[in-house]
Amino acid sequence: MKIISDIQELRDHLRGQNRASFVPTMGNLHEGHLSLMRLARQHGDPVVASIFVNRMQFGPNEDFDSYPRTMQADIEKLEKEGVYILFAPTERDLYPQPQEYRVDPPQQLGDILEGEFRPGFFKGVCTVVLKLFSCVQPKVAVFGKKDYQQLMIIRRMAKQFALPVEIIPGETIRAEDGLALSSRNGYLSTEERAEAPELQKVLKEVRERVLQLKDRTSQSISEIEKVAVASLAGRGWQPDYIAIRQQSDLAPASNEQLQAGEPLVILTAAKLGKTRLIDNLEI
Ligand code: PAF
């Protein structure tokens, strides 16, 4: 595997490759990332991965400084997966001058859910992803469904800018007890790690209630959300949101849409101690 930090050198190496398959990451790779590498291999060749902890998508009180950086272990994992190039730019490589041009996703998608609790997050994500696409010029790029809103925003960005890249979604990989794999799981204490699968359990309970709603109109979707938030809070979590939304655009779902069979998704973000976890479940 070639490890490249310089944009020009990356372009020289990829010259003439028009089927490259790209997986952008922030490193600290786990089985979820590696499943995206395997998916990338099914959709193009060569596979290019990137590792870049993107300061621009972290808020001032977030974990940019403490975000786990495990480059040597990551390199070994990517080599085993047969990744052809690891693009690992420094901040100076990727942002040689202050990044004054930025991609601002539409408010109705970028400022809700994660965007409401992490202002500017999707601006930072879209800007770096557009820049990484411009460096790698892949035919396809793979993003995990665990970051459901991110996946949707990037898909729409690619479409609106007519970027010649196909966005492929990768399924969420979970531990045996149901916890979605995430680099931030490493922050959890032993007790918190034992409690963490509760997040997925609550999502499953919400799904059951929503499906029961199909036959009844007595309870509303927002009541189900409130009950779920209270249930997590009662166990010591600090939930940011549990939201039942339309899969098509993440707008709030109504009972009528549910009756009409509109595909829905439940999204959640909640803090357990100091660790903020996100997850989602499609209905
Ligand atoms: O999902 C991530 O790891 C990051 O948001 C991404 C897409 C690599 C952009 O920094």
TrEMBL record:
HAMAP family registered for this protein in UniProt: PanC
Role description: Catalyzes the condensation of pantoate with beta-alanine in an ATP-dependent reaction via a pantoyl-adenylate intermediate.
Residues binding beta-alanine: Q57
Pfam family, one: Pantoate_ligase
Subunit structure: Homodimer.
Leftover remarks: The reaction proceeds by a bi uni uni bi ping pong mechanism.
Database matches in Gene3D superfamilies: HUPs (3.40.50.620), Pantoate-beta-alanine ligase, C-terminal domain (3.30.1300.10)
InterPro entries in UniProt: Cyt_trans-like, Pantoate_ligase, Pantoate_ligase_C, Rossmann-like_a/b/a_fold
The name this protein goes by in its record: Pantothenate synthetase
EC number: 6.3.2.1
Pathway involvement of the protein, from the record: Cofactor biosynthesis; (R)-pantothenate biosynthesis; (R)-pantothenate from (R)-pantoate and beta-alanine: step 1/1
Subcellular location: Cytoplasm
Predominant subcellular localization, coarse grouping: cytoplasm
Gene (UniProt): panC
Reaction it catalyzes: (R)-pantoate + beta-alanine + ATP = (R)-pantothenate + AMP + diphosphate + H(+)
Positions with a binding annotation for ATP: 26-33, 144-147, 173, 181-184
Originating species: Polynucleobacter hirudinilacicola
Keywords assigned by UniProt, alphabetized: ATP-binding, Cytoplasm, Ligase, Nucleotide-binding, Pantothenate biosynthesis
Active site as annotated: H33
